[in-house]
Specification:
Length: 237
């Protein structure tokens, strides 16, 4: 019984000591490691300054310069990040450069460049990559394969495919397809499709249900028009 009590006391002491050590490292101006949890400061601590994460860095908030192979923030990130893969559970402000991808679970006000740039919340700024995704987006998207936005989009899109699931306001230049539920602006691509269009569509095939504007293309479809299909030009106001 005494041995059990001694073991319990030692265990409790180690836990308290670890918690105290963790609190002592609540933040640090320098983060350095090989691969979490082999790092300083500890994984739940913040870094305000420079983090060199090695193969895998994991901290809460990181503000400053962040470099490594895979850099993870369970909180927010602000500053300059250069990695193969970056993942932020909170919000992001600043510059992100990643060979594979930048993923932000919260909102982002940033310039992101990588193979894939993903913001699950709202994003404003610039995304340059093969695949760009956001909830609401405002700014410039340059996508080698696709720019995909679930909610409202405002600005300029350049890509192979521009897929806007709800409202798009601005200019979309898609080599293959431009799609928007509601378009307010200008679409230029091989195929332009919108449910409700206010503006101009230029392409080989243009289609919309409701139009307040002009279409220029080989085949132009306006479902509500008295002449729904026209060659070269179609308009409805």
């Amino acid at each position: 019984m005494k041995k059990l009590m001694v073991i319990a006391a030692l265990t409790a002491g180690l836990v308290v000591s670890a918690q105290a050590e963790e609190r002592a490292w609540a933040w640090s101006p320098l983060g350095i490691g090989i691969a979490a949890p082999v790092q300083l400061p500890f994984i739940q601590s913040d870094v305000y300054g420079i983090r060199i994460g090695g193969l895998f860095g994991y901290n809460a908030d990181v503000y400053g310069l962040d470099a490594g192979v895979a850099e993870i923030c369970s909180g927010d990130f602000a500053g300059l990040q250069a990695s193969a893969l970056s993942w932020t559970e909170g919000n992001t402000w600043g510059l992100q450069f990643a060979g594979l991808g930048n993923v932000v679970a919260g909102n982002a006000l940033a310039l992101q460049a990588g193979f894939a740039n993903v913001v699950w919340g709202d994003a404003a700024g610039v995304q340059i990559g093969a695949v760009n995704y956001a909830g609401n987006f405002a700014g410039l998207q340059v996508g080698g394969i696709i720019n995909w936005n679930e909610l409202a989009t405002y600005g300029l899109q350049v890509g192979l495919i521009n897929a806007n699931q709800m409202e798009f306001k601005g200019w979309a230049l898609g080599a293959l397809v431009n799609h928007a539920d509601k378009l307010h602006g200008f679409n230029c691509g091989l195929i332009n499709v919108a449910y409700d269009c206010t503006g101009c569509q230029v392409g080989v095939f243009n289609a919309c249900d409701h139009m307040h504007g002009v279409q220029f293309g080989l085949v132009n479809l306006i479902c509500e028009s008295k002449l729904p299909v026209m060659v070269l030009c179609n308009a409805w106001f």
